[in-house]
Each structure stands twice: as structure tokens, then as C-alpha cells.
Write a structure and sequence with these properties.
With 338 residues, the protein is mainly α. It contains 16 helices and 4 strands.
């Protein structure tokens, strides 16, 4: 009796084809990939440079004299000065020749008073810029916190529970962003006058919260949907309540989405111009409507405007830089993979 043994499959790699130089092909593929990568890096650097040109010009203008700021052709090299910042943070009066001569004879002038005197002016007090910037911090910060908290709870409800008419509700929430804010400015102005909310921090804070809710709900719902429900179910099996599971399990997993949503909401509230211009006058006026109205002797103080814009930019940059580790995943909706 003969026994037939099955031939073992050939586990070795196929023999190379004669006449084909595999090392050359690998080198070509590697060089091609390196070339593509270099092109992408160059494109990113080019776009970044284009985007940073206005920031650079604003920053340099803040340290120019008024003559240098309006010079034609524009000056790239100049002697830096703090004239723009002095004009931004102070109110000044024009001196006649006699008073200017008396001021020049004084020896107790501060450095900023000397800069004002060089332009024939005398400092009479602080400007309203710091107060306006403080209003922006209070209103934008408060509305961002409210919008993120309310949006987080609404997004969790839409993500975890069966809400009657969920699609209609989500579309209605989104539709509030489709309407230009200027369309409702006059009705809101009349309503705020009747309710006593005109020129108040609370009025702008509530308005910004309402307009930011659609953004926060939709963004955070996307993150909530990507967090596995099994985590909460396991926590509730161990004895946690729904709120405890939400606080101790869901929130730590949603930090990425919360950080990204916070930055986007803050940027909208921080930069908003139309409502701040129409619904405030003195007490709650924010920085965006204030900076373009900076006037000096005989025209616009472009150095002061650039300095005010630079100071207005810094808080958002600080917040964005502090949350930078979450933003890359946040903007791509990369929360948790199941």
C-alpha cells in the first residue's frame, strides 16, 4: 500500500525577474515620496507666510511714528517707538507754543509724557481702551462658558436619548446660524430697550450665547457620538448614576471636543462687531467697535489702531496656544475610537 504525501506549499518568496533592478525602483519611489513631501512642506510654509503678512504689518505699524505709518511708499525699516501705545492708552490735549515750552523745561515728566510732548501734546488722563478690553473679556468669556455648558448637555441628550423630532430640532438649531446677525439687530435693539438689557454685559452675553449654541451643539454631538456607550453602561452597572457616569466617564473622554468648541465659540464672541456696535454705548462697549474710532490730531492714529489691534489679538492667541494640544484632534473630530 502506497501513501501519497501532499506537497508542502512553497513559503519562499518568488524568484526575482531577470533584468529588473529592484533597488533602482525602490530609490525612485523613495525620491518621489520625498519630493512630494517637500512640495507639501513648501506649500504650507508659503500659505503660512501669506497669512502672517497682515499680522507682521500690524505689529510693525504699532511701533511706527505717525509719519512712518502713513509714508508712501511704506517703510519696512524704521526706528521703533512707543508712540502708538501712548496714544492708545491715554487721552491728550494739544499744547500751544507757550505751554509746550513750559512743559519742555520740566524735569519730572514720565517717559510716556515725553513721547506725547514730542508730538506737541499733553496727557490729560487714561483712555477707555483698557475698560473696553475688559468688557470684551467678561462678555466673550461668560458667553463662551454658557454656550459650551448648555451645548454640552444638549449634545449629550441628542446623542444618548431618543428625542422626538430629533432631526427637526437639530436642523432648527442649525438654522439660527443661517440668518445674518444684522437682520435681527433692530428688533433685538427695541426688545433690549424695553427689557433694560441695552448697554449691559448680561444682554450681550445672552445674545452671544444664543448665537453660539448652534455651533456648540453640533460640534459636541459629533464628539459624543464617537464615545462608546459601553463605557457609561459599564459605569452604571458598577453603581454609578447617569450623571455620575457623565461626569466621571464621558467628560474626560470629551475634553478634546470641549477644547476645540471653546476656542471656536470664543473667537466668534471675541470678534463680534455688529451687535456690540448697535446694542451698547458706554458701559458694555467692547473693543471691536472702539478700535476703529481711535482719532488723533487731524485724522486717524494708525499707530494707535495697530497697537489696539495687537493688544486685542493677544488674549485669543494665549487661549488658543494653551489648548493647542487638543485642537488638531478636535478640528478633525478625532475623539475616541471604539
Amino acid at each position: 500500500m502506497t501513501t501519497t504525501t501532499a506537497a508542502a506549499p512553497n513559503a519562499t518568496a518568488p524568484a526575482p525577474i531577470e533584468g529588473v533592478n529592484y533597488s533602482t525602483r525602490v530609490d525612485k519611489v523613495g525620491r518621489r515620496a520625498q519630493t512630494v513631501r517637500s512640495i507639501r512642506i513648501a506649500a504650507v510654509i508659503f500659505v503660512a507666510i501669506i497669512g502672517l503678512i497682515p499680522i507682521y504689518w500690524m505689529g510693525t505699524t504699532a511701533f511706527k511714528t505717525r509719519a512712518d505709518a502713513v509714508a508712501i511708499p511704506p517703510k519696512v525699516t524704521f526706528t521703533p517707538t512707543l508712540e502708538g501705545f501712548v496714544n492708545l492708552f491715554t487721552d491728550r490735549s494739544i499744547l500751544n507754543k507757550l505751554r509746550q515750552k513750559r512743559m519742555q523745561e520740566r524735569t519730572d515728566l514720565n517717559w510716556y509724557e515725553k513721547i506725547a510732548l514730542k508730538n506737541g501734546q499733553q496727557i490729560t488722563g487714561p483712555s477707555q481702551y483698557v475698560e473696553r478690553l475688559r468688557n470684551s473679556v467678561i462678555i466673550a468669556g461668560g458667553s463662551t462658558v454658557l454656550a459650551v455648558v448648555l451645548g454640552l448637555l444638549a449634545a449629550y441628550a441628542f446623542s444618548r436619548f431618543k428625542v422626538p423630532g430629533e432631526s427637526d430640532w437639530l436642523f432648527f438649531i442649525l438654522s439660527t446660524r443661517m440668518m445674518p446677525p444684522v437682520v435681527v439687530t433692530i428688533p433685538i435693539f427695541i426688545m433690549y430697550r424695553q427689557l433694560g438689557l441695552h448697554d449691559t454685559h448680561l444682554g450681550l452675553m445672552l445674545l452671544y450665547t444664543v448665537f453660539n449654541l448652534s455651533l456648540t451643539v453640533w460640534l459636541l454631538k459629533g464628539f459624543m457620538d464617537e464615545i462608546p456607550r459601553e463605557y457609561e453602561e459599564a459605569a452604571m452597572v458598577d453603581g454609578y448614576t447617569r450623571m455620575q457616569a457623565f461626569r466621571k466617564v464621558v467628560l474626560p473622554q470629551a475634553v478634546t471636543g470641549i477644547a476645540a468648541t471653546t476656542v471656536f465659540s470664543l473667537i466668534f464672541a471675541w470678534n463680534e462687531y455688529a451687535f456690540a456696535l448697535m446694542l451698547t454705548s458706554e458701559k458694555a462697549r467692547t473693543a471691536p467697535p472702539t478700535i476703529p474710532t481711535i482719532m488723533g490730531r487731524g485724522g486717524m492714529e494708525w499707530g494707535a489702531i495697530a497697537a489696539g489691534s495687537l493688544g486685542f489679538l493677544i488674549p485669543v492667541v494665549i487661549v488658543t496656544f494653551a489648548l493647542r494640544q487638543y485642537l488638531l484632534r478636535g478640528v478633525t473630530f478625532g475623539a475616541i475610537r471604539q
